[in-house]
Amino acid sequence: MKWVEVDTQQAYERIRKKIITLELAPGSLINEQRLSEELELGTTPVREALKLLIHDDLVFITERHGLYVADINIPDLEQLSEMRISLESFCARLAALRADSDDLHVFEALQLEQARTPSENSHLLLDLDHKFHKALVRAARNKYLTRSLNHFFDLSQRLWYVAIPHIDFLSASVAEHLDLVEALKKKDADRTEQIMRNHVKGFYDRVRVVLEEKG
Question: 181 with 88: CB under 8 angstroms?
Fold first, then answer.
């Protein structure tokens, strides 16, 4: 029935947000009944939403102990960084070759808004950073690449929330995005690819230090 699908989508979005923002802590046990009560939704849409989140690698199930929020650890970080560095640098190359004037206008507007945002407003800077990367993916015009990177973006967002209290990487990203915009405007595919490779690698290197310090 239609209302069940709507409730499932609502449950999915709200639980996903709780996981990404660390309101549901990495590695924590998920209580379906409690979630259902908190969200004021039935257990069926919550259960269906959790199945979708298992597919997204944000929730995992154990045979004996039930459902858990996916943990954040260095081995997973290494694998995620390998994928994003490779895919997003290639995405940047495609964007440099395929971006049109509308795309460039979006890049410039987002970069300008980032530059005007105070460094202490980390959540807005985080949102703008996410929008910039999403815009780059759209400019690459490859639906399969888009699907893959959107999945990795969701996983990476949790890392941003882990790292924000410990390091100021968002201010540095403003300058890096400016370099990216200039390379995109010149359609310099090699330069754009290299900037993005360094940009993504730098982020994961900083997060790795945080995870190592947290033990």
Answer: no
Q: Which domains does the chain have, with CATH numbers?
A: 2-69 (1.10.10.10), 74-214 (1.20.120.530)
Query: What Rg, from alpha-carbon coordinates, does the chain have?
Result: 19
Per-residue pLDDT of the chain (215 residues; tens, 9 = 90+): 344 588 999 999 999 999 999 999 999 999 999 999 999 999 999 999 999 999 999 999 998 889 999 999 999 999 999 999 999 999 999 999 999 999 999 999 999 998 898 878 888 888 888 899 999 999 999 999 999 999 999 899 898 888 877 766 667 788 899 999 999 999 999 999 999 999 999 989 989 998 898 76
Q: What angle do CA 92, 96, 97 make, to 5 degrees?
A: 120
The residues facing 62 across adjacent strands are 66
DSSP 23: S
Give SS3 for 165: coil
Compute the distance between CA of residue 200 and CA of residue 33 in angstroms, rounded to an integer: 38
